[in-house]
């Protein structure tokens, strides 16, 4: 498909480039032109010309940490202490999940991503095979992340997935990862570090999410999770940590030294009473930051607008400084930072030759008016209701409330409800 | 207009009543029937029958604290320290506002309220006359609140407004209020307390929003704002405090004793680095709670869904307990608590004889699926994108993205942008 967007404001997110009025052309899966309005006749013949009506085109958001298939647990067990939530509710339900169920539950998450302008997600969950299939079937860009631990997924299985899912489908890729230090024994961690060295690949994991986790690691290993993993050689080729709430100065030094991504999940960290990540400190030390929603069991929504507001508002609260972590920095984390952590170097900005992963933001809504400052409007008052269109690899998957993912959303809702009932009954 | 909603789930918010399937009838400005589906023929002839498609009808949200007309300052001066923000940006711009400007700027806020299912707002701002007119012209329910302080609005002027705006229009009412202890001298406060006694009326004010405010009051008066105002006899007939972030045990006792409303504004309190209100403590002491967005200069959006999530998520973080302030309690604050604080006893629940102030929530969207628990879905993953219809006093003012307030929203946006430019140029 060749698609031409005219009459749009464009935020390319190239460093230092301001928003400008112009147009953007898509050929097949790539952007072929971004610039001022073209006056002369333009080749090729367009399958569609979209009058943007002065609205904003920008890169899509990247959800840098999620467990998409956990949609079945949304609103199933909230308002409970963490331990009870996990052991009495989440684990027993998860134990009954089949790969086929995760296929359908992931599709439900993909629908929600599209409504929030999320064009790619890094997904750490149980069954890479059916998650990859769900993404490919919908046309959604998915970065699978290894979830090795002592109870499920072996390092050998991860190596197989790494080979298979980096050559499976243009929209699917695979990163090395493990669940967390506290669920993964030393021998296994060493095997992962070895695999990372062989593949020259970054490694991702849950890191320092709760105070108890850090204290437990110090008790077990005499050091924090970050220090321990670094000593095991885990981060020779980079990677990152999900959450990173309770970080020591030494931890931060390690993140800065290896350019590890701090992937923050503010809504989940509040709702599970884990804490507030030191995002201002990340920035001051030059640590790259990306934003994730975490899974729908702990958030419970998959909405980058809510996360963006929380990143800046919580930083302002934490630093006791209303000028901390400004809107421009947050927007960069959500669109460009996420692409960096997820290895999507072709999906970060709007430029000729890049993948056409982009969103159209409706500025003709009261929460985006008046137009004093569009970037601040996006972060402080923006909402998923402003997402008019979501395009991935040149295909429009969502437009003004309608989905184009090859399946009726009502069928996906019905399936998700049926699965949830079945799992609940089996308890 | 007589309107019949069929095929809806109904959350009346009467204490203890579960969601049920049924229908609801509106005649003129009131609800005349809420109950199970009616099988026989139903009088009267309907101007409109709305098939709710299994979606949820519930009472509208009440924005219990706002400065609606401050829309012109949205995204104008964020990411600045509070002092600089207020003195160098907000006050100079506000000094140039005319009553007519506030009329148009308030209309912009009303559009946004409608998109978020907000059916009434308590508005403390500069020009009650044009705010009342904006509300009446749009069909929006507005509770004007006195904004007396040493620099604008006298107690005599407030008494006049109290008389006038409690008999001006069915959708408009007026409550006594003053800006804050730190902007209002003792003599004036005593005059307000005297007026409240004469009118047997509650009084509302900003209370203990920042640590500096409380410390300043203790320095000036030897006691906290709450204790000081109570000793002046301010709360003999009730009322409430906006923000209530930094409250002593004695302050909480006074709020409980007089059943004063704690009106919490979590987004604003984070963004301006003011702190987190002790909402769990309010509930444990039986203090009634309502939720406000505060003004668009400090929030910056007027969205009850974001506020609801923040109320519970911040309580969980503050108490270090993921079970604090559950979803049901938050939803009650947003719909029923607000009606209580704003004196709207006819707009709190869905029942025959009550005002038809209600919203239709679209459950057929991915963030509301699966349907494990609708109330939790609303609070934890709900969004303004789920608001399918907003009705005030029996009139549909917003439906699926379209507004019915007697003026084209594009004209309101244009006006707001023009005013903002004019004010900016005048700086």
From TrEMBL, chains A, B:
SUPFAM superfamilies referenced in this protein's UniProt entry, alphabetically: Composite domain of metallo-dependent hydrolases, Metallo-dependent hydrolases
Q: Which InterPro entries match?
A: Amidohydro-rel (IPR006680), Metal-dep_hydrolase_composite (IPR011059), Metal_Hydrolase (IPR032466), MTA/SAH_deaminase (IPR050287)
Q: Which UniProt keywords apply?
A: Hydrolase
Domain of life, per the record? Bacteria
Recall the GO molecular function terms of this protein's record. hydrolase activity, acting on carbon-nitrogen (but not peptide) bonds
Q: Which Pfam families match?
A: Amidohydro_1
Please state every residue range assigned to the domain named Amidohydrolase-related: 57-397
Q: Has keyword Hydrolase?
A: yes
Please indicate if the UniProt record lists Hydrolase as a keyword. Answer: yes
Q: What is the protein name stated in its UniProt record?
A: Amidohydrolase
């Amino acid at each position: 498909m060749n698609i031409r967007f005219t009459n749009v404001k464009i935020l390319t997110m190239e460093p230092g480039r301001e928003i400008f009025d112009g147009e953007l052309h898509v050929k097949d899966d790539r952007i072929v032109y971004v610039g001022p309005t073209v006056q002369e006749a333009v080749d090729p013949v367009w399958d569609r010309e979209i009058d943007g009506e002065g609205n904003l085109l920008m890169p899509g958001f990247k959800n840098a940490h999620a467990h998409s298939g956990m949609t079945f647990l949304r609103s199933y067990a909230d308002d409970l202490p963490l331990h009870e939530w996990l052991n009495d509710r989440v684990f027993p339900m998860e134990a009954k999940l089949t790969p086929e169920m995760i296929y359908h539950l992931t599709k439900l998450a993909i629908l929600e991503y599209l409504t929030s302008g999320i064009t790619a997600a890094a997904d750490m969950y149980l069954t890479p095979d059916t998650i990859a299939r769900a993404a490919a079937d919908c046309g959604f860009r998915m970065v699978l992340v290894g979830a090795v631990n002592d109870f499920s997924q072996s390092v050998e299985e991860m190596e197989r997935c790494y080979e298979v899912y980096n050559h499976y489908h243009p929209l699917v890729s695979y990163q090395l990862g493990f669940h967390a230090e506290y669920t993964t024994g030393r021998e296994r961690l060493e095997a992962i570090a070895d695999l990372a060295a062989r593949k020259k690949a970054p490694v991702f994991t849950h890191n320092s999410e709760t105070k108890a986790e850090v204290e437990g690691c110090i008790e077990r290993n005499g050091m924090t999770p970050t220090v321990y993993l670094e000593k095991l050689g885990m981060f020779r080729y980079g990677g990152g940590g999900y959450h990173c709430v309770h970080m020591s100065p030494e931890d931060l030094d390690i993140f800065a030294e290896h350019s590890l991504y701090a992937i923050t999940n503010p809504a989940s960290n509040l709702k599970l009473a884990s804490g507030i990540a030191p995002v201002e400190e990340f920035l001051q030390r030059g640590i790259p930051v990306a934003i994730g929603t975490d899974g729908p069991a702990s958030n419970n929504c998959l909405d980058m607008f809510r996360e963006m507001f929380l990143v800046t508002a919580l930083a302002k609260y934490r630093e006791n400084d209303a000028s901390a972590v400004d809107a421009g920095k947050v927007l960069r984390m959500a669109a460009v930072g996420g692409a960096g952590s997820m290895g999507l170097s072709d999906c970060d900005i709007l430029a000729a030759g890049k993948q056409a992963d982009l969103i159209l933001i409706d500025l003709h809504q009261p929460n985006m008016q008046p137009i004093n400052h569009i970037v601040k409007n996006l972060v402080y008052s923006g909402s998923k209701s402003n997402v008019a269109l979501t395009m991935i690899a040149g295909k429009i998957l969502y437009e003004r409330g309608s989905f184009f993912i090859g399946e009726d959303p009502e069928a996906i809702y019905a399936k998700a409800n049926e699965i949830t009932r079945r799992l609940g009954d089996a308890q």
